[in-house]
Amino acid sequence: MRSNRTLTPSTRPKTSYALVWLTYLAAALIIATASPIAITDSPSPFAGEWRLNVAETDLLREDIDEKGSILPAAGRMRGSINGIPLPGGGGQPQGMSPLAAKDPEVLRTRTMTITVSDRNVQLDYLDLSAPNNEEVLRRGHYRGRDSTWNKKKIEQKYKTSERKVSKKWSLRPDGRLLVRVQIKPSRAKKRNYYRVFDRTSATAETAATAGP
After folding, report:
1. Fold of the domain built from segment(s) 48-210
2. What is d(CA 126, CA 57) in angstroms, rounded to the nearest whole number?
3. For the whole model, what pTM was predicted?
4. I need a labelling partner for 75 at 20 to 30 A (CA). Which of 26, 27, 127, 206 fits?
């Protein structure tokens, strides 16, 4: 005998509901995997390996007056890197901070790598010896140093009992990295020291492959 029982909502097939959920899930996976660029920040233009360009650096070199009226004994030139002068030099007065008389490592290096994250900028000076072969800039105010960065520049400022120092990394229109270190001794005129770096071939090829 044929049954005339009518299917109630609780006894109807649930296949259609399962298909709807599977469709939504598949669509979400496609969107997540098809557009990673939309949800991933582009790398910093400063990231990579850089090598000193001596010729370009020499074009920006400021003539240093060796007379004491411009720079005191503690601020005269000390040595050079491929003929490029370094600040500092002379004896260190007693009681002064050793940090104050130390040349910024970026003025001494020939090859460096830059790694940029949201909170830190890591600079590794590949041709210098430890402990002077790396520098970490921490965003904001940290141990007397103020550091900021974006896609146009990296900057750090600090001062000691002897001088004020400002360091700035920026990209020139030709793609080269320009580093400016400004040093203002407490009893002398401020001086600007420049370094120009080229991307290494491997870094340049990676940047070109990644595109804008």
Report:
1. Lipocalin (2.40.128)
2. 19
3. 0.64
4. 127
